[in-house]
Design a protein that fits this description.
Blueprint lengths: L1 E3 L6 E3 L10 E4 L6 E4 L4 H81 L1 H7 L3 H22 L1
Antiparallel strand pairs: 1-2, 3-4
Length: 156
């Protein structure tokens, strides 16, 4: 016969001839607990077994419900993480778009500045005739541009 300790941590196989019908005290070798054990007749054993089975089924149902709740929570977290990832991608795309726009504006500014310098160089003589003090400023501007050009050539 198999006897389970009340702590339900250990089970013992005991010869049924060692336990009289009136019962006797037993001691668990694991938890050192002492309890009185009385053998049950067939119908009481079946009733106890049915109670144990129904208790196990109830516990298993509770575990299944908890697992379902956890899986639903995990699915919701995955959905939220996917939405966050989409938002992050949109933000990155916006930043990349802004960077490319900034680069485009910089190129347009440089081209416009060079066109202005070429225009001023083309009209240098008529401008100096109208504004005589502009000659020194234009000369310094062209000298600065020549220095920048030489600097760039040296870098290359």
């Amino acid at each position: 016969m198999i006897i389970t300790c009340p702590c339900e941590k250990k089970q013992f196989k005991i010869d049924s001839s060692l336990i009289p019908n009136e019962g006797r005290e037993l001691q668990c070798g694991s938890c050192e607990r002492v309890w009185f054990y009385k053998p049950q007749n067939g119908s009481e054993a079946l009733l106890t077994l049915n109670n144990n089975i129904s208790t196990n089924i109830t516990e298993q149902n509770q575990v299944i419900k908890k697992n379902l709740e956890i899986s639903k929570t995990l699915e919701q977290e995955k959905i939220i993480e996917a939405e966050i990832e989409k938002e992050n991608l949109k933000t990155v795309e916006k930043l990349e778009g802004k960077k490319s726009k900034l680069f485009s504006y910089l190129i347009v500014f440089i081209i416009s500045f060079v066109a202005l310098i070429i225009l001023v160089d083309t009209l240098k003589t008529p401008l100096i005739n109208v504004f005589p003090s502009l000659e020194v400023i234009l000369f310094n501007l062209f000298e600065t541009l020549q220095d920048i050009k030489l600097f760039i050539i040296d870098l290359i």
